[in-house]
């Protein structure tokens, strides 16, 4: 995404503009005003006396609010401008823009202010080449309103722009003919309403907002409450505190209410993933349990609500399978893309079980465990039955939808991501290594839930036996003794895919690794082939497919590194975990602002600066969550019954770190640590 673009966002509604505040179609990025996978404004350009305006400054006040100061004329005479304009923009249920014109001269100014307005109602899936549409436009100057409506059978979307000031409205926009006194000002408020029509012409967004009081949500009060509920970070390293606060703000921004639901869940991130992705949401929740645990119950309930119930090739659905993606756009509605409810992910289902168990460990919320008993057992059944298509005991994936389904149904989901060290792709169904770790962990955790909460010790024993057999089989079949690491994947014939990848960290995180092998894995993860200095690469250098700017073939992902660091700490490799955390925090502190989705895998000594990939999103929920997970890993936070334990390993140069009021089953607890200290942490019941 272009770094000079400005955005405001609230949940899955966002506006992306240039530095002046104008929105124009760009095939490279989704500029415009979007909500629920539809672009409601494709053209929003302000002119003064027919002249485009140029930016003096921009002030990003909050994730949902920004202010542009713009002037007419070229850069050479900015300072001589007699008139300036302030565009104050905010977003909630709709877009609000207050336009203020300031006259700096000693004479009255008569001006023509024009807002050019259009909507192409493009689906986010077609931004690079929007299809032709013929919306119906109604201009009503007497009502100070412009309505643009698009309908295709029962699919209907409408943009309504209203002004508080008298205005001439035409089909291309709004024109204000104004007079501003010397040293005076003029303003108008423009409101953009985004309407999603359901059966009978009902506005789904407004109806649901009224039901859930969403339209009356005070964004500032909501953000304050969000911060008040989260732990406070105290450190003499101010850049660390700023990064923490930015991550919290981004997580607040990336919560939305699906049309069929009443609680907010995380979207993937700006700009391409502004909807519910099962994998992103589950990992975000796992990352943020010590900080924002309220995300988890809503996410688990939503995913249980749309859990797979039948075999369906188009949507890659199977009974018990957990959702991969939920979309509301036109392409999904008419099944031109299978994304209305799409299940093309093999990792979401075990992650669902893992999250429920981990949430109970932190929260003690037994009621949720009981409520989700059936969906959780269905998920475990899917792992054992549908997830093992050839009966060799390994969790595998193969797309049912061979036309436009996702080929690689793991977090490395780009088409070329699963290859051996020579670039050869394994046949389907593919058993990647991290899937086996997730499946093992899910069965171990499912056994605990069955024994402690569901009163089913026989089921628990069966799950434990399967988990033990999987662990034994995995450590036999995936281990490459001459290379001293686990294979990336296994072919249907049992042949190892010998690439060296960051999956080793996921295996440590899951607990499937034999303890005596953990040291070798730590050596690889922090070795020069995988560790760039900023973080662990997805794919090791020195292998033929390696590419430092390849998303899953050499780039560095904060979300991946958070899991790697947690895995290293699980097996006692504390120094190595601290190095990974320090590298990731250095990325955030160097770049400033939101945690990027991904950076290039160039060696740190070569670039001296983290190189962001052009199509990477920012902010992203699992990237912001990664920073929190890394912080928890540095402090060594873990629940132990009714207490919070802390076992800090703080990197050199970080001094003292205090995390205050960590929520959990103990009430609220504090944790602290000092760099290279082995002592720290206290908890209290509250």
TrEMBL record:
<dbReference type="InterPro" id="IPR054491">
    <property type="entry name" value="MGH1-like_GH"/>
</dbReference>
<dbReference type="InterPro" id="IPR012341">
    <property type="entry name" value="6hp_glycosidase-like_sf"/>
</dbReference>
<dbReference type="Pfam" id="PF22422">
    <property type="entry name" value="MGH1-like_GH"/>
</dbReference>
<dbReference type="InterPro" id="IPR008928">
    <property type="entry name" value="6-hairpin_glycosidase_sf"/>
</dbReference>
<feature type="domain" description="Putative glycogen debranching enzyme N-terminal">
    <location>
        <begin position="10"/>
        <end position="190"/>
    </location>
</feature>
<dbReference type="GO" id="GO:0005975">
    <property type="term" value="P:carbohydrate metabolic process"/>
</dbReference>
<dbReference type="Pfam" id="PF14742">
    <property type="entry name" value="GDE_N_bis"/>
</dbReference>
<dbReference type="InterPro" id="IPR032856">
    <property type="entry name" value="GDE_N_bis"/>
</dbReference>
<protein>
    <submittedName>
        <fullName>Glycogen debranching enzyme (Alpha-1,6-glucosidase)</fullName>
    </submittedName>
</protein>
<feature type="domain" description="Mannosylglycerate hydrolase MGH1-like glycoside hydrolase">
    <location>
        <begin position="372"/>
        <end position="623"/>
    </location>
</feature>
């Amino acid at each position: 995404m272009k770094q000079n673009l400005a955005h405001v966002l609230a949940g899955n509604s966002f506006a992306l503009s240039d530095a002046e505040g104008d929105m124009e179609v760009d095939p490279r990025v989704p500029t415009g005003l979007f909500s629920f996978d539809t672009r409601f404004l494709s053209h929003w350009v302000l002119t003064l006396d027919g002249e485009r305006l140029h930016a003096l400054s921009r002030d990003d006040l909050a994730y949902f609010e920004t202010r542009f100061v713009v002037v007419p004329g070229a850069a050479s005479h900015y300072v001589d401008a007699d008139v300036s304009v302030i565009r104050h923009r905010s977003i909630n249920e709709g877009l609000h823009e207050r336009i203020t014109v300031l006259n700096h001269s000693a004479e009255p100014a008569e001006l023509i202010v024009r807002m050019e307005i259009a909507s192409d109602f493009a689906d986010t899936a077609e931004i690079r080449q929007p299809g032709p549409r013929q919306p119906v436009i109604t201009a009503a100057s007497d009502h100070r309103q412009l309505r643009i409506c698009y309908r295709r059978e029962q699919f209907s979307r409408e943009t309504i722009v209203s002004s508080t000031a008298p205005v001439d409205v035409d089909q291309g926009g709004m024109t204000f003919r104004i007079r501003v006194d010397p040293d005076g000002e003029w303003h108008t408020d423009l409101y953009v309403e985004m309407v999603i029509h359901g059966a009978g012409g009902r506005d789904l967004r407004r109806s649901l907002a009224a039901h859930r009081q969403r339209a009356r949500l005070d964004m500032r009060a909501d953000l304050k409450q969000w911060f008040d509920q989260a732990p406070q970070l105290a450190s003499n390293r101010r850049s660390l505190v700023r990064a923490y606060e930015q991550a919290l703000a981004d997580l607040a921004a990336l919560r939305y209410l699906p049309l069929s639901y009443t609680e907010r869940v995380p979207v993937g991130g700006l700009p391409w993933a502004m909807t519910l992705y099962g994998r992103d949401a589950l990992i975000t929740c796992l990352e943020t349990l010590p900080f924002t645990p309220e995300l988890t119950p809503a996410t688990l309930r939503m995913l249980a609500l749309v859990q797979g119930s039948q075999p369906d090739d188009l949507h890659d659905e199977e009974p018990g399978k957990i959702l991969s993606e939920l979309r509301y756009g036109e392409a999904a509605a008419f099944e031109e893309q299978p994304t209305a409810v799409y299940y093309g992910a093999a990792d979401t289902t075990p992650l669902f079980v893992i999250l429920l168990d981990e949430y109970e460990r932190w929260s003690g919320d037994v009621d949720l465990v009981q409520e989700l008993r059936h969906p959780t057992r269905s998920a475990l059944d899917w792992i054992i039955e549908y997830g093992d298509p050839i009966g060799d005991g390994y969790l595998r994936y193969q797309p049912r939808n061979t036309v436009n389904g996702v080929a690689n149904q793991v977090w490395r989901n780009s088409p070329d991501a699963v290859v051996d060290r020579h670039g050869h792709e394994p046949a389907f169904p593919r058993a990647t290594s991290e899937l086996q770790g997730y499946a093992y962990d899910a069965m171990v955790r499912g056994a605990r839930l069955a024994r402690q909460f569901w009163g089913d010790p026989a089921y628990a024993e069966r799950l434990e036996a399967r988990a033990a057999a999987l662990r034994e089989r995995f450590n036999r079949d995936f281990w490459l003794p001459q290379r001293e690491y686990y294979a990336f994947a296994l072919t249907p014939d049992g042949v190892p895919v010998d690439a060296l990848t960051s999956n080793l960290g996921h295996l440590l995180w899951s607990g499937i690794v034999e303890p005596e092998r953990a040291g070798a894995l730590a050596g690889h993860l922090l070795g020069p082939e995988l560790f760039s200095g900023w973080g662990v690469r997805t794919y090791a250098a020195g292998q033929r497919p390696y590419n430092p700017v390849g998303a899953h073939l050499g780039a560095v992902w904060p979300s991946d590194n958070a899991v790697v660091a947690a895995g290293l700490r699980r097996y006692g490799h504390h120094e190595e975990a601290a190095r990974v955390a320090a590298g990731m925090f250095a990325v955030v502190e160097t770049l400033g602002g939101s945690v990027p989705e991904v950076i290039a895998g160039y060696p740190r000594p070569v670039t001296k600066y983290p190189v962001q990939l052009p199509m990477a999103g920012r902010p992203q929920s699992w990237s912001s969550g990664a920073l929190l997970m890394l912080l928890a890993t540095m402090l060594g936070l873990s629940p132990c019954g009714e207490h919070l334990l802390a076992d800090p390993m703080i990197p050199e140069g970080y001094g003292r770190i205090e995390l205050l009021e960590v929520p959990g089953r103990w009430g609220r607890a504090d944790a602290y640590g000092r760099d290279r200290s082995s002592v720290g942490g206290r908890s209290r019941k509250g």
